[in-house]
Amino acid sequence: MDELNHQVLEEKPVPPPEEFSKKARVGSMAEYERQYQRSLEDPDGYWGEQAKLLDWVEPPKKILEWDLPHAKWFVGGKLNVSYNCLDRHLGKRGDKTAILWEPEEGEPVPISYRELHARVCRFANALRSLGVGAGDPVAVYLPMIPDLAVVLLACARIGAVHSVVFGGFSSVALADRIRDCNAKVLVTADGGYRRGRVVPLKATADQALESCPSVHSVVVVRRTGEPVNWKQGRDLWFHELSDKASADCPAAPFDSEHPLYILYTSGTTGKPKGVQHTSAGYLLQCAWSMQLIFDLREDDIYWCTADIGWVTGHSYIVYGPLANGATVVMYEGAPDHPAKDRFWQIVERHRVSILYTSPTAIRAFMAWGRQWVDKHDLSSLRLIGSVGEPINPAAWKWYSETVGKNRCPIVDTWWQTETGSILISPLPGATPTKPGSATKPMPGIVPRVVDLRGEPAKPGETGYLVIERPWPSMLRTIYGDDERFRREYWGRIPGVYFTGDAAQCDRDGYFWILGRVDDVIKVAGHRLSTMEIESALVSHDAVAEAAVVARPDEVKGEAVVAFVTLRANAKPSRELNEQISEHVATTIGSIARPAEVRFAQALPKTRSGKIMRRLLRELAQKGSVTGDVTSLEDLAVLEQLARTKGIEEG
Ligand code: WT7
Q1: Which of 3, 18, 249, 649 is deepest in the core (most CB within 10 A)?
Q2: Which pTM does this prediction carry?
Q3: The predicted structure's pLDDT at residue 269
Q4: Does 190 contact ligand 1 (Cβ within 6 A)?
């Protein structure tokens, strides 16, 4: 934990722009405090009232059943998630644009609520025709195209459980995730576009499916038109299935706790965790937080730049915005294609009013220079947000000045795949901000910074971030492994939810999230497990042992550094170094590619044989070791490591 004792900035909080506060849904700290107090004193009353944001077929009989660590929210209630995102808007907003899709190349494609509804109904019927019913998992491996949202909502409509795998994952990672949830159907595309190049998704999926016997049908969206292999009897075109299917698909009610989706995320072991979310509580907290944190209005053009393959896209591109009847921009491609001003071109072109992006993107824009931003009229923006990793004060200030023109409040939103929705964030019209702090908890949320015994840390002291009470959008379990759910989230510090993050709470009650305390690293906001990368490394023929640590990176926040020992028959060389990196990229996906692979004669270990990652981390960060080395089995090992960097000297 001592490594995480960063200096926290004790700056004076800056209140939101007056103009913004005047019109905001929550316009003062007094109003925030009132709601917050109410939510703690009378949680049932508070959440019962918020639940009216949704349309219920049967209203809930009880707000919460809490049998630690298992929560049931809105017990006895019935609703349909896709009805709440589509049907109920058709009267007033049928012609309103739901999704404004910006392809990497070509003209934008607006899709109205009416059209989205029809497409969802058709595909829901198509899924049924493949034998998919309530509770059945459907694997999804798609690029950022509107069909992705259609598939999610179609699953929700018939109570099927989607499991989206990010399109950047490799065939091995895809296969692992499909096998874990036993999906019978996979929805993919012939390919996608990234920086003008074709990403051959179908070919990758075909490879994955060789080891996924559960999958009997593969539905393929035609995006690129490139030729693909076709397995008769298994592969079906999305458009052919949809065209054949009826557009009439009444939304059947499902129980509040009916599973909505599984989303895999990296944990402390090599095996990804299938985070299980359910229907009503999840949807409600997404919809509600959209209103409070993004201060959402009927005429907003809202753009979240995440990929739907991650939870940010699930909650804040699909469910949260559509439950509110918002217009969402969805962009297919890269921020620097065809040029480094693509984001600002999109903001100007669509008059985007709310922009939600990541610190990594912001730091990349900083590095590219403000001239790319200044070329464009950003006067439509009224609120800007950040998510995924800590945002350093310098990036925060640049974002505020260069993009927000010191006029737009910034919401630095802290949450996780597991939390389902944002738990710590400023309310833009109320909360005075401090650059680098996610500020205060949302109503209903009780975070604490504690030590391992659960004792509260003093203001400014680093500790573990935990959450004390259940909240509606929290994960319900890890799919197929309830024991791991108990152990990892509720067993570390008994009685509270363990986030895995280190944090400080300052004298004003502001939260500063410092980073992970487990073997999870965040590269460009993507969550990677050191163990998963290590097992990819040792699956290479030449590698005997591997240890992976993170080092700070100016743009991506953290970068992967891999220390490897080679098998007797292998010799260090530049080619082998590159091969090993490439092997990680093909096993997991290019997001996991090490920034550096360092050859070593042996890895430093404790007497009990545990790899001393702390020393390696120090080595990766500073190039030398100054920490305590007394428990090292072999000091020479460490010396050798410190001298040997990559292949240059080795
Ligand atoms: C981890 C969760 C939240 C959706 C996308 C990532 C880090 C996230 C912040 C923030 C500092 C943050 C934490 C957290 N994180 N947002 N605003 N400030 N750190 O979801 O992949 O599940 O990752 O991301 O370390 O635990 P995820």
Answers
A1: 249
A2: 0.95
A3: 84
A4: no
Pairwise CA distance, residues 596 & 609, whole Å? 24
Whether ligand 1 lies within 6 angstroms of the CB of 558 is answered as no
**Architecture in CATH of 520-644:** 2-Layer Sandwich (3.30)
499 ligand 1 Cβ < 6 A: yes
Q: Which atom of ligand 1 is nearest to the CA of 526?
A: 21
Domain map (residue ranges) of the chain: 520-644
H, E, C per residue of 280-318: HHHHHHHHHHHHHHCCCCCCCEEEECCCCCCHHHHHHHH
pLDDT tens per residue across span 576-624? 999 999 999 999 999 999 999 999 888 888 778 888 888 888 888 876 5
| Cβ of residue 311 lying under 6 Å from some atom of ligand 1 | yes
Ligand 1 mean position, distance from CA 568 (Å): 41
In a 13 Å sphere around the CA of 504, the CA atoms on its Cβ side amount to 22
Q: Is 312 in the pocket of ligand 1 (CB under 6 A)?
A: yes
Answer whether 529 contacts ligand 1 (Cβ < 6 A): no
- Using DSSP's 3-state secondary structure scheme, residue 189 falls into strand
503 pLDDT band, cuts 50/70/90, is: very high
For residues 352 and 348, what is the distance between their CA atoms, to the nearest angstrom? 7
Buried b (16+ CB within 10 A) or exposed e, 195-221: eeeebbbbbbbbebbeebeebebbbbb
Tens-digit pLDDT profile for residues 504-544: 999 999 999 999 999 899 999 999 999 999 999 999 999 99
Task: Tell me if 500 CB under 6 Å of ligand 1.
Answer: yes
Among 317, 414, 526, name the best residue to mutate to test ligand 1's pocket (greatest count of ligand atoms within 8 A of Cβ).
414
